[in-house]
Specification:
The termini are far apart. The chain is built from eleven helices and 15 strands. The protein is α+β, with helices and mostly antiparallel strands. It is globular. It has helices spanning about 60-70, 90-105, 125-140, 145-150, 205-215, 255-275, 295-305, 310-315, 320-330, 360-365, 395-400; strands at about 5-10, 20-25, 35-50, 70-80, 115-120, 160-170, 170-180, 195-200, 235-240, 285-290, 340-345, 345-350, 355, 370-375, 385-390.
Amino acid sequence: MITISMDDCQGGVTAPKGFRAAGMYCGIRKVKKDIAMIVSEVPATSAGVFTLNKTQAACVLVDKIQLKRSPVCSAVVVNSGNANACTGERGLNDTWEMVKTTAQALSLPEEQVMVSSTGVIGQYMPMDKVVPAIAELAANLSTSGNGDTAEAIMTTDTFPKEAAVHFTLGKKVVTIGGVAKGSGMIAPNMATMLAFITTDVAISGELLSKALRAANNRSFNRISVDGDMSTNDMVLVMANGLAGNVPLTENSEEYQLFGAALEYVLIKLAKMIAKDGEGATKLIEIMVKGAISEEEAAQAARAVANSNLVKTAIHGADANWGRILAAVGYSGIDFNPDNVEISFGELPILKKNYEIVLDEVKAKELLLKDSVVIVVDLNQGSQFARFWTCDLTKDYVHINASYRS
């Protein structure tokens, strides 16, 4: 694994050179900010990954077309409160109107504009509110608009999610920034939330897409709150090259460093989403090690993360290791249960051949904390994978029983 020296910094999506943003209230939601815009001062190489749900929102369908039409993107407009999903031809037309209105407001070619939406499914977009808001956003873009943007894309999130890092490529200091939203309808398999990543690195579209897929697989594809996959999920990346580095080439050390930094930012945002799961009180990290392959380790960790029995046990600070081993057992990987060892962080719980070494008092102390680490050692290889989830609480039911109200 490559190591890289990075400095966390402020600014989110406007931390890299040449990016501005804005967020505001326009009336899609009842009271909260609900529409935002992220813009690069110069056309930026773009890449995206999208939900695998067969039911896809209008913005997902339109953005896939836009990525094929143009290798660059200069602007993203995103709203909360309305998913514009399952809205048929009218929903598609409304999304294209958002593209056109944004392009006109910024004097851009239409193919350089992307759209994203999140919120309630099956409702038409209030275009009488959205269209004038787009013009206002365009007039108020700034390098300090990242905070308003982070707030404007939230739905049931309880806090805004931003991250940014500086690092060096060659002799140039470069930056990656990001913003994300997600709290419910979070399950692995791309991407089950919204995330927008900006960078001033010079990189081709092909390499940017490759780096995004790799980083996404180890971040947003490894979080789960409730096992539900949304209709609107996407991760979009814009790279405008204003850092002035020599364009990255495949297999170079600089490309590997960029990939490591991108993965770091995405994991940081992904963990915020898992921590902010609807009604959650604990962030749970599942580490499966000693696997034959990283894929099998991730498969086993995913099963544990999606287990409601595990999640409720952790919520109640119950060291019920049997639920963890059972989840690994139905994950579909080939392993010998006799060889499995389980611990909570550094505290051993189960040794090989089902030797129970559980200290109930110490285990409860660990499980009462707001961050819990479950380690499962399969003892059959050298590969590992991490997964992040949260506990399952009564508040999750309350939030989702009244989501539309």
